[in-house]
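Hi L., both proteins are below.
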Amino acid sequence: MREVARRFDVSLSVVQRWVERAAGRRLDRVDWEGHSRRPHKTTRTPPEIEDLVLEVRRELREQSVLGEYGDTAIGERLRTQHDVELSVSTIARILRRRGAVEKSSRWRRPAPPKGWYLPDVRDHGAELDSWDFVEGLAIRGGIRVAVLTVTSLHGGLPGAFVQPARSARGSVAGLVAHWRRHGLPRYAQFDNDTVFQGPHQHPDVVGRVSRACLSLGVTPVFAPPREHGPQNAVESFNALWQRKLWHRHEWSSREHLQGGSDLYVRALIARRSKRVAGAPAREAFPPDDGLDLDAELGGRIVYLRRADDNSSVELLGHRFEMPRDWSHRLVRAEVDLDADKIRFHGLSRRSPEEQIHLWTGPHHVRRSRRKGRP
């Protein structure tokens, strides 16, 4: 058989299959046609089970606290309440076949690790909380609300705090309430809104939110302006909160909305319990509160920036020159308040482990608040 396989340039298994099919018969009496590997008999899910799948999906879509009604949630409900065992792939096929969902696919390039721009976060050695606001919401009677949201990068630990409007005081209250309940992360990340960063018209200003973080030993991080990459986690939670809670119910007051949000957040934390437990450890909130906005500043503030056409970076009201070959590339600036220095590192999404030290120079930021300042 091996000699025949070599002579006709086919594999040994092909010759063995031919011999097995002939089974000692005359060659003109052997059926040499190819045979389909499709099973002779297929089993399709009974119509009544398919109807049950669609009914469970409808119930979950209207009643689920988490707002989850995909194939995994349907399978769990079928097992626990209807004693029906169906695989996730079978449920997905039923939903597509019955027109409940549309099949879609897209190709994406591999993303860098979570928190790749901060080495200890990238290596799963530290946790980072991303903060943002959901704006433009109005409840019954035209009452405007703003919702301060947060989610942790590794653990996915969520939070939402309903406020009358965006403000630095309200943001600090939300930070303290969330961290007193769940513990302190090593980093807190924000966008460059004046509510978080402080007023932009004066150089070297450290706002109320940054002071609150530093007084509690948390390093504030500011994402690059007009870029969504580092803030994707909290932006995703914002969309989830609106889709699964805000748009599914009618709200009569801020208290009503806060109560519904707290219920949703607790259910989401329970759903993510394994992920939360596997996240880097958080520090305990100081028993004596530890929040002192008038204390002298210490620690670090991190700014993520993209260099412009001239390879320069603007932050804290100053312009810093980077190497000539660093135009339009990401930079991590670390303001060391204890040493009065500023350090710049070059970043690359394609090579997140390579964070090149660009230069270090002296820089002084006012470490105490001016008297009478709010």
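That was the first. Here is the second:
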Amino acid sequence: MSSMFGDSVASPLIWVITIVVTVGVLVVDLFVIGRRPHEPSMREVSRHLAFFVGLAILFGIALWVFAEPHELSPAPGPEFFAGWLTEYSLSVDNLFIFLIIMTKFSVPRQYQQTALMIGIVLALIMRAIFIFVGAAAINQYSWVFYIFGAFLIWTAFKLAKEGAEDEEEYEENKLIKFVEHHFPATKEYHGTKLLIKENGKRLITPMFIVILTLGTTDLLFALDSIPAIYGLTRDPYLVFTANIFALMGLRQLYFLIGGLLQRLIYLSYGLAFLLGFIGVKLIFHALHENELPFINGGEHIDVAWLEIPIWVSLTVIVGTLAVTAVVSLLVSRNRDRRDLEEQTGPRRETTG
């Protein structure tokens, strides 16, 4: 197997530059938000979201044109776009849970940007760890693809079975419950402060619990998203940058389409199909690279159709997201119209 950096689309220098630029953008963003907590206007979030999306598209085009194919990434540009779209669509689904968390903890609108931003920083750190652990495992053991594939297929089945119902409920994990029961906390928000000192005692604030909830929740989301993107590219640099661009615009997307999220009623089913498709793709790849002695005598199964090309994956991803969005919006619009008619009664034509 190739080393993590030796056969990647990015040299160690490019890795360093990417990480420095990412950290710089996050620090500036945190500094600006920290100085002036506020609920962003539609114009502000639209401008910032367009910037991040445009940057991701330019980055993908640059990879498509200039990056040389290699063992881990035969088609860097298409693989980046496939990974970025998949991560972005999974992130949009995660926004349902973020909305519920913000509502559950009654986070004031002017502080939600800060909570989301810190949550995104924590998400990037945790996903970076997952990415490098996954890359190391894949480089050493090809049978890891069997585990990733089976996990994604199981996740797809669970997501399809639950449908949109799981978005309406949120149960705190054990860590959050432990913190709430064992750490003294204030009932009121104190701006964006995580800790305060009151009567000589150090107390946590509701903002601390909110950020911890967002961070641990995204850790669970990463269990789905990291195996999914490794089903589209094996290059850790493409996995990392796809996650960066997906998370960078997440805060703006939260404020921009908060109401629209409720209309994407079939998003869970579309994502279930995508995760199932990528899971099958991973199983096929595992069979193609097979080294397990109890499968085909430990020999590779060298059948051409077992390797699904990236252009097929990209077509399936774009097509699934487009169909899911269009059908969701059409059905939700008809449902809203029907509900309105039931409340107000059918129109009666008047005669002169």
